[in-house]
Design brief:
- This protein is an alpha+beta fold.
- Helices cover 34% and strands 23% of the residues.
- The protein has 7 helices and 11 strands.
- It has a 5-stranded mixed beta sheet, covered by helices on one side.
- Strand 1 and strand 2 form a beta hairpin.
- Helix 2 packs across helix 3 (74-88).
- It binds benzoic acid (BEZ).
């Protein structure tokens, strides 16, 4: 059965572009984005790895490590890095796993044989500091991913882990959030002193609970 949300991310030892990594040990207390790409020296993958490298400071700011994977050998990863630097203006600044025996790809369900028998599809796993899988995504080989969306989900996961809220469609950090239905109005008064707007009894929108009260008062007064 494929890995599901809440499962422990399988541990592994792998050869990567920054040396041998013991996955859980390497992750430490950070969040991890583990993502597979189909093949080195291919166009969509080249743009994706450049984009992850550009966004890596944003991932780091959130306490997230990124790590890529394909079934290519280490030497190919290293040679391809030069092309990525040349064409994308930045080289990969995160480890890339050389999973040539497909051990990790199979453990994580990254090969979808009816799509491609040999090469990984575009998967993403967001893994929290307890090593639990918190998001999975699978994209076809022809569609490059939107890594801003991965950052957006990490913002949501980190916020909702800390507060009794969920985040609405297309939410971005700082925008209003939803008070979860299990919190009664009486409890909500305690937890959300800035108040809320109830479009329905089950749909209560409140300012991002990290908004300092002062800032909210200033915004509200125009
Ligand atoms: C690409 O990165 O462009 C690609 C890789 C494998 C299959 C299709 C496209």
């Amino acid at each position: 059965m494929s890995l599901q949300l809440g499962d422990t991310a399988p541990d592994f030892v792998a050869h990567t572009t920054v040396g041998v990594i013991e996955f859980h040990k390497w992750a430490g207390d950070d969040w991890v984005v583990l993502f597979s790409h189909p093949k080195d020296f291919t166009p969509v993958c080249t743009t994706e790895l450049g984009q992850v490298a550009r966004l890596n400071p944003e991932f780091a700011r959130r306490g997230v490590k990124t790590i890529g994977l394909s079934v290519d050998v280490l030497d190919a990863h290293h040679r391809w890095a030069d092309d990525i630097r040349e064409t994308q203006g930045i080289a990969p600044n995160f480890p890339i796993i050389a999973d040539s025996d497909r051990r990790i790809a199979y453990a994580y369900g990254m090969i979808h044989p009816r799509h491609d028998e040999l090469f990984t599809v575009r998967t993403v796993f967001i893994i929290d500091p307890r090593k639990k899988i918190r998001l999975t995504l699978t994209y076809p080989q022809t569609a490059g991913r939107n890594f801003d969306e991965i950052l957006r989900v990490i913002d949501s996961l980190q916020l909702t882990d800390a507060h009794s809220v969920s985040t609405p469609a297309n939410w971005h950090s700082g925008e209003d959030v939803i008070i979860v239905p299990s919190v009664s109005d009486a409890d909500a008064h305690e937890r959300f002193p800035l108040g809320w707007h109830a479009a329905k009894p089950y749909l209560r929108l409140t300012p991002d609970p990290r908004t300092p009260r002062q800032e909210f008062d200033l915004d509200a007064s125009g």
